[in-house]
């Protein structure tokens, strides 16, 4: 682990089950190759992971089984190691490439910016060559406009020890926010293509579908159905991501899916037994599957390899730890901007309660930072999506690294000037509408005049991915909240507590407080049961948050008086929802009415604010 990281402590562990074919899975690492400095249970770095995979491959060789490494994208954006350099990723791509990943695909974060698509194309692709698979993603040459597959559409290979015949795919969900030097083909169209249908006629021992796709998203369903229609008898193992959660799903008796969390907190383990090898007597495979979510720390890695501090680490692993350490120094990631006076949580505190990160932003940060000198005296509503905040703030040092961990995006503030307050006040309620209005194609065409070909963009995409993946159990409560929001006069969440914020959700987990020494962490419940986490944890609390939050700035001091007009200021990412929300509120606005509000990104403004306001000791 990195120097300065807090040491993990031993915790009750569950063992891994090995099979004929085994997988280690990373996803949504978002630049956290240095591990977590303030959370010991996730403190292993990419160098430790390299040592771990080396030792696990040796174990596989000893057992005569096979081990494959999979990564399902979103390797970039979300940590100083990627975001703090100019250009972004100056050190990250090289550090990441020290790992031998057998199957790798692309996430949406590799595609938001023109620049990161170029890096994917000219750096990650050559680094991983035939291991990179892009089943529904094309690269568009910015000079010629020519469109060609980002990488091969599928990969066929034999495993090292048993010669198992594998056909692997690499999908991305139907993402539409990509820069124009890439093109994502809809999954439902891809599975009708000749090349895909031809591959399904083959009879490998296993299909491996990697995808930057949440396990419960429709895209995996579509792929599974298309595959099973063409091929009834081949086991299929899916590896997904994007949702930032630990999850496993059973599609049928021969097909399962695994998702392995986020931010290098989790290394996913999947084992498959009962496979039939090509050439075996013509009987059907009857595979069995196991899954484990490994907490990313060296004590767990020692446990699973049966090694210790003196025998576990490899030269290459140590070398990569040094690469990370020196990159962090070059980037001055430990430079302290201020000291957070307490913890601020994204979902471990209620939306409107002290200690909630959005409340901090609404009440303290926005009124200071959302200022355009020429319009300083105008009343304004400043709106941001909760998904724009990516991580909690822990009490203690707030560093250059923390800034990017909390807010990695290059988003800026825009505004629509002089909107009648009667219209503007309704926006926040509509953004947080828990009913299905945003998903209605009729509403899109009739009210928003959006071309019917444009798929609706559900408003939950403004919230944090972890919440987007959260079970729909809160829909009724969310609808009630919306009704209140739409009828409340300020458009702000009403003062009384909405039902769905009243009690924490534990993701259906069993409380384990009977064991006093447990560290709080993931207690996953998936289609396999509730024994998936390698470390036995005390459950974390989870409070549902709104999609977007709002600060009323420079309002008349007497709260009963309301301004005639306000500037509607918002983070650029949510423009696709702001304009329809304005229309829905009775305002005839379009993208043409949107102007830049001020210089600087939210990220830079947050860092300045911390520097000016959190100058205590830590
Ligand atoms: N510029 C951006 C980009 C993304 N978001 C938020 O992130 C969510 C997607 O996150 P994944 O890591 O799962 O891809 C998206 O739904 C937004 O909430 C953002 O706020 N600004």
UniProtKB/TrEMBL annotation:
Domain Putative 5'-nucleotidase C-terminal, first and last residues per copy: 343-579
Region (Disordered): 488-516
Record field: compositional bias (Basic and acidic residues): 496-506
Biological process terms in GO annotation: nucleotide catabolic process
Pfam families in the cross-refs: Metallophos, NadN_nucleosid_C
Species for this entry: Emericellopsis cladophorae
All residue ranges annotated as the Calcineurin-like phosphoesterase domain in the record: 22-245
GO cellular component, one term: cytosol
UniProt-recorded name of the protein: Ser Thr protein phosphatase family
GO molecular function, one term: hydrolase activity
